[in-house]
Design goal:
By secondary structure, the chain is mainly α. It contains 13 helices and no strands.
Length: 233
């Protein structure tokens, strides 16, 4: 469960990955990706886990769980879900790299929360009529939320929270994810509390992950959030 992944020790997580061939494959694919630019490939799972670090492997485990939760036969919808999986991977990597630099505590828990925030959108894609699900690809988070409410009666953020409660995840997992999703609806006002700032950061990483996955942002080095006029931000 996401709760176990979030609290597992290095040894427990290694044992889990060793028992799940598909997760093990994803760990080795990640460590050998161009992102890390290794001079020689890593072929040992233990070495791969050590190199990536506990929080990155946690993120891979949670993303794999989400991927397995939504088996679809329609190849076009599967492609849309794969793009969302890529967005969650990019978002979790951003969270992991930036949170310590901003002094945000417990980056591992925050990575898990960011990945789980994609549970709602995955749920809505599985439930929406095919033409509507396909039309979601180029839309903003706000536009998607409106379509979800129109066709399903609830937006993705609420669907994700309902599903996590159905899975009997503890409140300390569900509540932060729900708060993160609701940043979209939070009015500007007083300076945020430390908890609100943490949720806003996670929300930003999720939205940037989506933009990177669909190619609307291609260079984070030149990205300036103050110049991003999207209603999502």
């Amino acid at each position: 469960s996401p709760d176990f992944v979030q609290t597992a020790t290095s040894l427990e997580l290694s044992e889990l990955v060793l028992g799940e061939p598909q997760v093990a494959a994803k760990v080795l694919a990640t460590v050998n990706s161009p992102l890390y630019g290794l001079s020689r490939p890593v072929v040992s799972l233990g070495q791969g886990i050590t190199f990536l670090g506990l929080n990155t492997v946690r993120g891979i485990c949670v993303r794999y769980m989400l991927d397995q939760a939504f088996p679809v036969s329609d190849p076009v919808i599967k492609l849309a879900l794969d793009r969302m999986w890529n967005a969650s991977a990019l978002a979790s990597e951003l969270t992991l790299r930036l949170a310590p630099r901003l002094g945000l505590p417990d980056a591992g828990a925050l990575v898990t929360q960011v990945v789980l925030s994609f549970l709602g959108p995955m749920t809505s894609h599985a439930l929406l009529p095919r033409p509507v699900a396909l039309a979601m690809a180029g839309k903003t988070y706000l536009e998607r939320s409106r379509l979800e409410q129109e066709h399903l009666g609830l937006c993705a953020a609420e669907l994700g929270a309902l599903l996590m409660r159905k899975w009997e995840l503890p409140d300390n997992v569900v509540t932060p994810v729900r708060e993160m999703d609701r940043v979209l609806l939070s009015p500007c006002g007083e300076p945020p509390s430390a908890r609100q700032a943490r949720m806003a950061f996670g929300y930003l990483c999720a939205r940037l992950g989506e933009q990177l996955a669909r190619g609307s942002v291609t260079d984070l080095g030149s990205y300036v959030i103050a110049q991003d006029r999207s209603a999502d931000l």
